[in-house]
Amino acid sequence: MQHLAAALAIGLGVWLFAPTAEAPEARAEVAPPAPVFVTPPAPVLAVPPTTRLLRLAAGDTLDAVLLGAGLGARDAQAVIAALAPVFPPRALKPGQELALDFVGLDLGELRLATGVDRDVVITRAADGSFAARSRLRKLTHVPELAAGVVRTSLFEAANGAGVPMPVLNEMIREFSYDVDFQRDLQPEDSFEVLYDRLYDERGKAVGVGDIAYATMTLSGKTLTLYRYVPTGARTAEYFTASGESVKKALLRTPVDGARLSSGFGLRLHPILGYTKLHRGVDFAAPPGSPIMAAGDGIVESAGRAGTYGNLVVLRHAGAYETAYAHMSRIARGVRPGVPVRQGQVIGYVGATGRATGPHLHYEVRFRGTAMNPMSVKSEAGHLLAGADIARFHAAAEATDRELLALRQATVVASMPPARMPQ
Ligand SMILES: [Zn+2]
User: Fold this and answer.
1) pLDDT for 81-139, tens place per residue?
2) Residue at a domain's end among 121, 136, 151
3) Residue 355 Cα, ligand 1 centroid: separation in angstroms?
4) How far is the CA of 282 from the centre of ligand 1 (A)?
5) Is residue 28 a part of any domain in this protein?
6) Which residues lie closer than 8 Å to 330 by C-beta, 6 or more apart?
7) 406 and 282 in one domain?
């Protein structure tokens, strides 16, 4: 009863909207050549489909919402049964919109967005049954260029320049092979980043695309990267202007948003009270923060290990091992012998074992000997070669031309006022 009331409340909030771009097609399909009648036919009431847009509220069930929208119990069940294999109804969230096309009193079609660029369409067949299919939505990519100068933090500067969070996170991830964000960033350092903003057919910004280009100038030294899909590769990677992959052997900071709280070497042990060699570095981070594999590798061990608490040890190429201690929890599936990829979440920050508070104790071992993770010389990334390097340079030059045009447009647009933070 409660659900029905909620659904009715939604029903009252329903509004009609103009047919979308796909409507003309649909109309063309249902309009056969006009028959020629010798005698006037019996009058047929032509009912154009009406579209109702519903928005799910917290606590709504799809069943109750469909019943509230006027569907019969059998149709509501058939719609849910058709949807389930394509998109689990359980994954629907408050705020989710449903568009329902009614022909007369019957539901003809139901559409819902299941991703930034994906819809599920459920259509009634002639026999009254329903079938669901997933459909890619056409999104418009609009390149956006943002730039800023660090005053207090990179976060503040990026935020002030209107850089969306997913773009900032990706930027930090790609630069973190070369930049130690705990130490290297200084006031007056600057950045510039080019990415796409994605708009749906109604002109609504629905997300962001990949970074096409990013540059950071740190204490006068400039690092630049371009996105490129190498021949035969399935995914894009980032390369320097000379075509060297930025992806290196090991990440320097395998936990996001962390603060280096204790360095490598001799120190007065906070619990034991005497000087002891600290074999790793400590990153203070909120409990539960995801810990990432510093490099591609194989899980050597994962489990309880005395004063280390919950510990994961990874084996990497080139006789390197990395160890991650005091985890509150080891990520599901992280077991000895399992391969992991760089950046994959392998556990979560905690304070298990001998720890004064939640932090990641991170060790790097080379041929079994602990070394300072901050001074590990990460081996150079691979260089593009042959036809790939020519293709890469052509792509980078095209990006440079786009950048030039966007910079000019930005200069014009920002005199005055300056670019507004979103
Ligand atoms: Zn430690």
Assistant:
1) 999 998 888 888 888 899 999 988 889 999 998 887 788 999 998 888 999 999 888 88
2) 136
3) 8
4) 5
5) no
6) 302, 303, 310, 312, 346, 347
7) no
